[in-house]
Amino acid sequence: MAEKSKILIIGATGCIGKYVVEASAKVGHPTFAFVRESTLNFNRVEAKLVDHFKSIGVTILHGDLYCHQSLVNAIKQVDVVISTLGAMELADQVFIITAIKEVGNIKRFFPSEFGMDVDKVNAVEPIKSMLAEKAQIRRAIEAEGIPYTYVSCDSFVSFLLPTLVYLEPGATAPPRDKILILGDGNVKAVFNEERDIATYTIKAVDDPRTLNKTLYIKPPKNTLSFNELVAMWEKMIGKTVEKIYIPEKQILKHIKTSPVPINILLALNHTTFVKGDQTNFEIDPLFRVEASELYPDVKYTTVEEYLGQFV
Asked: What are the residues facing 154 on neighbouring strands?
């Protein structure tokens, strides 16, 4: 059996990064977490998470995204780099690209994508600019000739399903009386549990089928329209809820007049549930592959299973 690649996760304590670290360590990859030491001194949550990483055998490498030498020193120790940096640091992945190019030993780079395929979306602002930054990073990777895999996992279940996309401050569970549906409710979207996203990502690390391709995570049981999602919820709670359909024109108006971060969430939901940018194209096997088909052994969390906790 081939030796497992050594993996470095940059952004290891973030909302998806922590799951990628755990998934990597769980299957025996020598796993390295790139952590800013100064953050641990005043962030008890992250400090506790780093202690957890150590307990499962993860090597902690202290450094800073903006310190070139610390990046180089970390990258020299591994075979694969996975970035899970957040929205505010997407453009700064150019520093990782520069370090990878200098070191010259990296077999694969996974930039921070973990959303919709940025080359396929038709988004409005403010999401349009954020996705453009991801696309620019893609082009930079390709221009430098760095081997890559782009992970396109569409929607995180923890962001949307606990409230069925309902942007009500303080809401912690799906509505049982009235649900707002964006558009006509017939557009398909994709929902993935974060641990499953991490599992599929790590599966792809040493898989030649995913090299220089986009890895889509589109499990068939988790590809649903808004109407199908609501119908599933109604069946689970044994009750019909009132449905209010919000036309696109009204959604676009709300995007322009709403404050941050509501405008960001609305724009994201617009491209997902109105434009259908997660599902309105075919997967070209020459450039793209689908995770649940490549790895049928993975038992992913279905939407129905996830919603069950709120019944």
From this structure: none
Using a cut of 0.90, tell me whether the model's pTM lies above it: yes
For the question of residue 134 being annotated catalytic, the response is yes
Output the six-digit token pair for 177: 């009386």
Taking only the tens place, the pLDDT of each residue in 144-171 is 999 999 999 999 999 899 999 876 766 7
Question: Are the C-beta atoms of residues 239 and 89 closer than 8 Å to each other?
Answer: no
Q: Which residue among the candidates 54, 76, 101, 134 is catalytic per the annotation?
A: 134
**Which residues are paired to 115 by β-bridges?**
none
What value does the CA radius of gyration of the chain take, rounded to a whole number of Å? Answer: 20
Instruction: Specify whether the CB–CB gap between 11 and 17 falls below 8 A.
Output: yes
Helical spans, DSSP H, in 181-273: 194-204, 226-237, 248-257, 262-273
Per-residue pLDDT tens for 115-130?
999 999 999 999 999 9
CA distances from 159 to 115, 171, 172, 174, 237 (A): 12, 12, 11, 12, 21
Angle at 14 between CA 308 and CA 278, to 5 degrees: 60
Ramachandran class of 28: left when φ > 0, alpha when ψ lies in -120 to 50, beta otherwise: left
Q: Are the C-beta atoms of 123 and 267 separated by less than 8 Å?
A: yes
